[in-house]
User: Fold this.
Amino acid sequence: MTRVKLIVAYPQPKDVEAFEAVYQERARPHGDLQPGRQDQDRRHQDIAVSTQGRPQFYCIAEVHFPSMEALQRCAESPGGKETLAHAAKISSGGPPVIMIAEEDTFTF
Assistant:
């Protein structure tokens, strides 16, 4: 089964505490703002270590969708646009890197 995920990689913030406060309050995806996303597959990862020294990114957020069409509908919705704009606004260390990946899952 092929699914799609939206990946948002946030650069190291200028002020970690300020970033965390606003990220925890509003930036994590909300179901009412993102139609079509799969709530059970939302992920947030803090980047702890990099082989190149200080990690380029502070954290990565992933939001999974059942299809590219579902992701596009979400991104084009008022709530999706608001969420993406907010991600850019709170990223004090530079613009977030936004990627879309297709992933195949299968059972062994």
Q: What stands out?
A: Confidence is low (pLDDT under 50) at residues 29-33. The first strand starts at residue 2 and ends at 11. Helices lie at 16-27, 68-76, 78-90.
